[in-house]
């Protein structure tokens, strides 16, 4: 849906003044940029590259869809989110624990 706490969306709804990535300031902070491009998250991104083998040899856009639509990618995805610390002000730790749902 595109609704998230990244600056590109927050800028569209008037919550922040700029859509620029607050970490690198090199591009708008979209989901694609946050997960696959931001140089500040290069080290954390290694966890996501690992699950690429389960998705196959694909383009980055296809990889993004695979990460977000593939249940096997959830643990590496949440590990990436936690290691970037990007949403720590909102969530303490992202988890795949489904208890209480």
UniProtKB/TrEMBL annotation:
Protein name (database record): Reverse transcriptase zinc-binding domain-containing protein
């Amino acid at each position: 849906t595109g609704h998230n706490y990244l600056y590109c969306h927050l800028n569209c709804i008037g919550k922040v003044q700029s859509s620029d990535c607050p970490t690198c300031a090199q591009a708008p902070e979209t989901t694609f940029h946050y997960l696959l491009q931001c140089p500040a998250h290069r080290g954390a991104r290694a966890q996501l590259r690992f699950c690429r083998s389960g998705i196959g040899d694909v383009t980055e856009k296809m990889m993004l869809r695979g990460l977000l639509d593939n249940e096997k990618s959830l643990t590496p995805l949440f590990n990436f989110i936690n290691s970037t610390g990007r949403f720590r002000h909102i969530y303490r730790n992202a988890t795949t624990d489904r208890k209480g749902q």
